[in-house]
Design goal:
By secondary structure, the protein is mostly helical. The protein is 62% helix and 4% strand. It has one domain.
């Protein structure tokens, strides 16, 4: 709203001190981040007190994990803090007419409502299972379908081709100003922009992969087939990200910290992809309008950092599915809009390994139960972060026993953060590796 208010003043010829700062993505990104952090810190305490007053506490099943019983009654549904903080920064400093921002706001509200429904069933209806897995998947896939159709049909979601043909490389001091002037030029915006199914892929010269190459048809049918494949991929990415983050939410600060790291990287990628000069220098696709995603992801990272004030060990509040499903949905949607979804296996390696550990554990347990009459496990417990905790040894055969000595959950969380930072740096480094 502040951004649009200053835009109105500018058109009306009203000159206010500092009004020109709103033209800079960097300034708006910083302000969105600071706003999100402050809202999380200030509103977080009141929301936690309200949750305690309403007796909205975590229901804990005794799995023999160290410190697990002590967490019983800790307020949950703290994802409300994250959602409120993100939207505060976004509404104040983002261009609310930008299609990318609108899709991300929709995703935030959609996944937030889905997670809230799941937490509501667990807390108020005393159903530990919450919303059925089938129900969650249907809702997540429907969101993916909406985003996929928007990418397909919206005239504002385009890729600009042949950036290098008409760009003059300038000095670093002039780069920001030159990019701002070129982007603001309306005739420039419409030049060489196309609807495309291309995305970014590492290790190749142009960093591009076209889903058209997977189409078995040519001509008109080929055109429909390539978009069908692309939309299906979008659905899979958003669904996988949302569930992967949900599984990672098991230790104090784990999901929030690792997601903040991912959010920072996506913000950087949005900045680069939406900047003419930087995208040309790195030889990546220039995506007009995606600079606004950098502002959104700044608010996203800020909200998670503010939430960590209360969620770090020992946690005063848990995000619940209200937070974890929202975080995963935002990461998936932003990666798709930035054409960086094929980088997610590396960038979101923590989420990938956590999800894979659960799937492999289930498959191995069911297979061995049929073969030997009793289920066996690969790890002592999944998701993987629980494997490293101090816990009671469960009966039955285990391929990989718990570590000796086991680790405190604060150390596990910190080490997962370190791994997340390594993966984040590696993801950014791929932009220069061909």
């Amino acid at each position: 709203m502040i951004y649009h208010l200053f835009q109105y003043f500018d058109k009306a010829g009203i000159d206010l001190p500092g009004m020109g700062l709103m033209h800079y993505l960097s300034f708006r990104a910083m302000m969105a981040s600071v706003t999100a952090i402050l809202v999380a810190l200030l509103a977080g305490k009141r929301i936690i007190r309200l949750l305690q007053k309403k007796q909205i506490g975590e229901t804990v099943r005794d799995l023999g994990l160290q410190g697990q019983i002590e967490k019983k009654g800790t307020p949950t549904m703290g994802g409300i803090i994250i959602i409120l903080s993100i939207l505060s920064g976004v509404i104040l400093f983002c261009d609310l007419t930008n299609i990318y921002v609108l899709l991300l706001i929709l995703s935030t509200l959609w996944c937030g409502a889905l997670g809230f429904t799941d937490d509501y069933i667990k807390v108020f209806r005393h159903n530990k299972e919450g919303l059925s897995e089938k129900g969650k998947l249907i809702a997540q896939m429907l969101l993916g379908l909406i985003v996929g159709i928007a990418v397909w049909q919206s005239p504002d979601i385009v890729v600009r081709e042949k950036v290098a043909d008409d760009v003059t490389i300038v000095s670093s001091a002039e780069k920001t100003v030159e990019a701002e002037v070129l982007v603001e030029n309306s005739s420039y915006k419409e030049e060489n922009v196309v609807k495309s199914t291309k995305t970014t892929i590492p290790f190749v010269k142009n960093h591009e992969f076209d889903y058209r190459w997977l189409s078995p048809f040519k001509g008109v049918w080929g055109w429909y087939a390539k978009w069908a494949i692309y939309v299906l991929m979008i659905v899979l990415v958003i669904t996988a990200c949302s569930n992967g983050t949900n599984l990672t939410d098991g230790l104090d600060g784990l999901a929030a910290g690792t997601s903040a790291i991912v959010g920072v990287v996506l913000g950087i990628l949005a900045w680069l992809s939406g900047n003419l000069i930087d995208s040309n220098y790195l030889n990546i696709m220039y995506l007009p309008g995606t600079g606004e995603i950098a502002i959104f992801m700044s608010a996203f990272a800020g909200a998670l950092i503010g939430f960590l004030w209360y969620n770090s060990y020992p946690a005063q509040v848990f995000m619940g599915d209200t937070g974890s499903l929202t975080i995963g949905g935002i990461i998936g949607v932003s990666a798709v809009l930035l054409r960086k979804e094929l980088l997610l296996p590396l960038l979101c390696g923590i989420f990938l390994v956590e999800s894979a550990s659960v799937l492999l554990q289930r498959a191995y347990f069911r297979t061995t139960k049929k073969r030997y009459g009793e289920g066996r496990r690969i790890w002592s417990m999944t998701p993987l972060h629980h494997h490293y905790q101090d816990k009671k040894e469960l009966p039955g055969h285990v391929l990989i026993h718990k570590p000796v000595p086991p680790h405190h959950e604060a150390k596990i969380t910190a080490r997962f953060w370190i791994v997340g930072i390594i993966l984040a740096v590696a993801t950014l480094a791929l932009l220069k590796i061909r």
